[in-house]
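Tutorial handout. Part one gives the primary structure; part two gives the three-dimensional structure as tokens.
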Amino acid sequence: MTTILQTLQVSPCGGAAAEITLPLTFFDMWWVHFHPIRRVLFYDHPCSTAEFLHTIVPNLEKSLSLTLKHFPPAAGNLLYPTDTAKNKPLLCYAAGDSLRLTVAESGHDFDDLTANHPRDADPFWDFVPELAPPAEAGACRHAPLMAVQATHFPGRGVALGIANLHLLGDGSAVNASLILGWAAISKSAGDEEFLRLQQKSAPIFDRRVIKDAAGIDGIFWDEMRKAPFSPAPFPLPTNRVRATFALTRSDLEKLKNRVLAKKTGLNRVSSFVATACYVWSCVARSEPDGDDAYELLVVPVDARGRKNALIDPPVPGNYFGNCIAFAVVEIRHGELVGAGGFEAAAEAATVEIRNGVNDAAALLKGAEDWMNEMKKCQEKKMKVFGVSGSPKFDLAVADFGWGKAKKVEYVTLDGENYSMSLANARDGGGGLEFGLSLPEKRMEAFMAIFADGLTK
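Part two.
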């Protein structure tokens, strides 16, 4: 039901740097073998095929080229060495490098795709581009860092699918800086406003701001190079359904008050913690035969601008790359799914964020042990629940000239164990909304548990 119409190669326009080579920091090394991040932005913008092909696509191509002038690494490649004992991976952009823009048309039901109810997850993969496989090139394999797809739904709308290796950057870099920057340039048909806003916060690519006197990047690389570099194909069929849920401001206050009533040692509970822990507990309860192994909630933490135990001065807020630490909450499955499991999880998460993130002496302390801690979790077969996206980097506000996105879907969720995407509620009422991808029967169980819990 989706047809590829054409494939374009888009390079940075004139004025871009001739070449940029970036070593991987320890923040990057963590993501060497991680699957690409894939998201789709749906826009309610009825247009004809002629308008799409002759106006929208050329504008996207031109604005993307202008955007890449300011973010040239996105048009570059990961250079993965064949001799991993002597060399480490690099990110490299060279003059002539380009990013692939795929143009497609789809007969899928736009309104069904942008609804909240459970839908088959497989069709969403039609709207994200596959990154080209690594190409052999002398002493390295070259793997593209990013690709884009524009899909037309005749008479209904447009979808922009964006895929990138996590090595290019985290949500602050790729979502909040690059994609929102592209949207601003597209809407204004130029980069003057973008440049005005960037005067004091132009993206910094220089990896020297990540001071790593302990050589943590080498510690991580010694572990990561043991696994072959083999990007995974699309995980189809997914055997999952996708759905979106909302928590109103009233729902959030009710959840917070439940925690504070039972955990009197807490002064406050954030909306993020209330949402993540309530969803985590409901997902755990939806599992029919869970054992009593430990479960982990892994919360990404943007370390930019934060005083910490490792990097002084702190990493600038406009650093473009990866700069993610983690808050990890550990709780036994039996406790998480039992009476008071949500409240116990919220208490543990609040304490972990207070002591491990907001305390400068604790943030990034022991980072050299992250890899060993991950291995221990894998050996113990701990179940991990993650969070993608953030209300701080809300892609729904990306306006390419057609208004805000009607829906944003993190297709990536289908290929992970279990994670949630998180964003501001689209009604502007101060609530939050989240997306999930689960097997159909488990989604049905989750929906019943989720709704029932909000009545208590």
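Part three, for discussion. The first helix runs from residue 26 to 29. The mean pLDDT is 94.
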